Amino acid sequence: MSSFAFPPPARPAVPVEGTSALFPVRRILCVGRNYAAHAREMGADERDLPFFFSKPSDAVVICPPGQCATVPYPSATSDLHHEVELVAALSSGGSNLTPEQGLGAVYGYAVGVDLTRRDLQNGFKAKGQPWDAAKGFDLSAPISPIRRKANCPLPQDGTDTARGRIWLSVEGQARQDGRLEDMIWSIGETIAQASRLWTLAAGDLIFTGTPEGVGPIKANESVKAGIEGVGEILFKLL
Ligand code: MN
Questions:
Q1: Which end of the chain is more exposed for a tag (fewer CB within 10 A), N or C?
Q2: Cα–Cα distance measured from residue 176 to residue 225, given in angstroms and rounded to the nearest whole number
Q3: Is residue 37 within 8 Å of residue 81, measured between CB atoms?
Q4: What is the DSSP string of 159-208?
Q5: Would you state the torsion angle of the CA atoms of residues 234, 139, 112, 117, taken in this order, to the nearest 10 degrees?
């Protein structure tokens, strides 16, 4: 009978809205360039296929409703950027899913911010190096509680387009103000595509990309973000 060499690390978990239950986080996958206008502002061809990168599961920062969470300003950057994103939380998974099956794997949705060390990312892009330190750093994924799918006005089946406003402000100034229906790939299509590359499973979070208007946030600035029908988050960089 083996035991752990030391107590195992705590499992990151996100509250489920309106219950005492926690959603245990397994993996975090993120889509790059899923909104045409953001792809253009990043200098990419809007017809490029979206692609994936990941963050560690312990990157999540829980932002309780009605409260201001704190996020430490990360080390090794002087150009931290915000990217507000719809997050799909999965309660099942599999490989080679159809868009219908992909959407069927969704347990609920949350508002997330894909914090990005843009200066590092630009350097890595120029050198053809991996993005991990630019995207997958400590506490780089502030997230709202998860709202159960049935309580969200988002697609309930198939390749339906999600509809609703997605926005982010810094210090009360509007920075991002987009529409979910401008996503290049639907939620079901995104999950289906991810399942061709990884075996998805319960506990996976999929960040579905950000609309245009990404930009810098400085220490001591507060970020508020929301998605119509899904929720809002508020946090301050310290
Ligand atoms: Mn992103």
A1: N
A2: 9
A3: no
A4: TPPP-SEEEEEETTEEEEEEEGGGBSS-HHHHHHHHHHHS-B-TT-EEE-
A5: 100
d(C-alpha 164, C-alpha 141), whole Å: 22
pTM of the model: 0.96
Q: What is the pLDDT of residue 46?
A: 63
pLDDT at 84 over 80: yes
Residues of the chain with pLDDT > 70: what percent? 96
pLDDT-derived band at 21 (thresholds 50, 70, 90) equals very high
Lowest mean pLDDT among 4-13, 20-29, 151-160, 165-174: 151-160
- Ligand 1 centroid vs 82 CA: distance in angstroms? 8
* Separation of CA 220 and ligand 1 centre (Å): 22
Task: Look up tokens 């005492």; give the residue.
Answer: 20
φ/ψ of 79, rounded to 5, equals -145, 65
pLDDT at 49 over 80: no
Query: Above pLDDT 90, what percent of the chain?
Result: 89
Query: How far, in Å, from the CA of 1 to the mean position of ligand 1?
Result: 43
Domains plus CATH for the chain?
Answer: 27-237 (3.90.850.10)
Distance 116 CA to ligand 1 centre (A): 8
Neighbours of ion ligand 1 (CB under 5 A): 83, 114, 210
